[in-house]
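Good morning C.,

I know you're traveling, so I'll keep this short. The sequence:
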Amino acid sequence: MAQWVAFLSGYQIARFMGGILFLYPILKELNVAEIVDKYCPKRTGESHGLAIAVLVLNRLTAPRPLYKVAQWMVFTILPLVVGVPAAKFNDDYLGRALDAVEPHLEMIWLEIVIRAFEHYDIDVSVIFYDLTAFIMMGEYKDSQLVSFGFAHNTPMDKRKVKLAGNVAQDSGILLAWAGLPGQTADMATVEENLSRLEQVFNRRQRPKDGTLIVGDRAMLNSRLAVIYDTQKDSGLYYLCGLQPREKAHEDLLASVSVQDLRANYLTGKMGHRYWGVKRPITFTHKDQETGEKTQVTHTALIVFSEATHRSWRKKYRRYRHSCRRK
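The tokens, ready to paste straight into the viewer:
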């Protein structure tokens, strides 16, 4: 018996745990596998939800191509936890799961995220909305998403896909999103995004004081200001930069003196301080089909930036110097 004990105690199996120890319980709390199976019913002996959960764990801990996920699983504790041999998770099984999930991807993500926000009490009173572009390599002849288009800091001669995302300030979690063709303009996405957020808040309790959507200057013009105004009753508000393309807006900026701005300090340290004043601003939108005009008045915050002012002064001095040399 002593010899058998010595033999068995010398035979050990090492299993990798790492981040799986913490991530797997989170996936269980969020019911990731169950939600996937709800939209993608199981085939004979296959659970798409389990396959997706394993892929999530792999991507978060030790990313592998599909054909190497089974090999990775052999050295983890997952086969013992889920009760399924690692060899089962080959690239065919995982590929079928991804194909099954793709048509329901947005709804699956939405349901998982809403459960996460409620379970972990995440605040969604402030949301940042923006678009980002992904450069794509290849031909993609039949793709409805991959196309040429403009995006900051990306080459014009490359095809791209854009992702429109709403991120909660409280956690940095992507709440609602949409994949868009590369040529999509930022302003063309705002109205659809408001409808997307409305769908989210119809499925969960709204913040008591509403939700503020923060965007850049590509998210605001007179037409969008009118659309934003219609969302106030549903608790959606906006804060965006504005390009003063209309004369009325240029006149509003010109009417505020530097002395007025300097009298109202906002924030920042020496060298990067900000001052600002509030002024009413009117947006006028004319419907191209009916010719009807709509006006809304909102509040503008006109800001004076110390760093930007210093940069402009340097450019102005260089310009004057170059003119003198000529």
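Safe travels,
E.
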